[in-house]
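Following up on my earlier thread - several people asked me to post the actual chain instead of describing it. Fair enough. Here it is, all 421 residues.
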Amino acid sequence: MIPFRAPPSQEWFFHVLFRAENGADAGTATKLSQQVSEAEAAEERVTALREQLVSMREAFQAMLEDREATNEEMQVVNEEMQSANEELQSTNEELETAKEELQSANEELTTLNDELGVRNTELTRLINDLNNLSSGVDLPVIMLDKNLRVRRFSSQAAEMFKLEDGEVGERIGILSAEVPELPKLAAQVMRRRQGIEKEIVQADGHHYSLRIRPYLTNNGEVEGAVIFLVNIDQIKEAEKERQELSETLATLFESAPDAVMTVNAAGRIERVNGQAEKMFGYDRRELLGKPVAKLMPGQFPRRPENAAPTPWPRAVGLELLARRKDGSKFPVEIMLSPLSLAGAEGMIATVRDITQRKRVEQALSQSREELETRVAERTAELSAERTNTVVALEIRARQQAALAGLSQRALEGAVLGNAVG
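Reply from S.P.:
Thanks for posting it. Predicted structure:
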């Protein structure tokens, strides 16, 4: 047995040879010789084939080495290509990242542009609102910066102070002719961060309420001052009318013929007139703060305790018994009217001394009783006379009836007598 391998396979093959034994016949020997010759020839062929195989193996081995070298070169090239591909991929990723960053920056710029557009629109709207507000409030308004220079003013302020657009940025001294203390007041407002209000009267006689407020930013910093002037001529006229009305009411209150008192929700006297002092014998200072029920003990109407918000009950022609300072009592007639001033509940009590009226009523009552007595007596007398008259009339009627009967019978007798004759 001869082992061998046929590259490139790594598997082993075996060449098997057979030899004849001694003692065989000539034919067999011949046959065996022939077989040996054939075997030798075959072995030669095998040797030649083996040499060819070795040559082929060497050639194949050279080819394998070339292939391995080529493979190594291809692997190096592949690695270089892979490295280049990775570099290209990294560059591509960097480009993608840069593209995304550029896209993000573009989106941010677009968003910022949109926000700026919105802010610009809001700013335009605010400017329009400010202009319309300034012209709509119909008030002179002046804005100053921290250096007391004119920053903005309304059309009413321009008309009042004779301002022009070119005077924006001028110092506040241009307004001093109308309001001399204005620079000092504006500086004081910015320094103290508190607004002030002051009434001024212009040369033309108009009254204004000068209001100065600090101009504050969103951060709370003072950047100037804002000046408002409000015409208060109507308020002054109303105050004058109110003062005149108050004086008129006070005169009516004091000149009332009856005692008049104002009472608060607690039932205590807050104000009285001179007639109340005379009627009850107290000094005005003694009556103020005194419970009104003390002047009419046990009889003055009480306010329900569980109804504090409810006004005092209204009463007209209520007759009570009052008590003076010296303790003497006298009849009075009171009238209660609910009163609400500045949200506080109270009442007005009007008290009238009816002593003289009671005397007159008593006299009239006595006169009425006497008259009723006389009428009753006269009625009784007339009733008796009437009874007597009726009796007399009945008697007379009977007598007349009797006379009439006699006359009828006498007439009938006379007629009969004439008939017989």
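The helical segments are 26-136, 155-161, 182-192, 233-255, 274-280, 284-287, 355-420. That should answer part of your original question.
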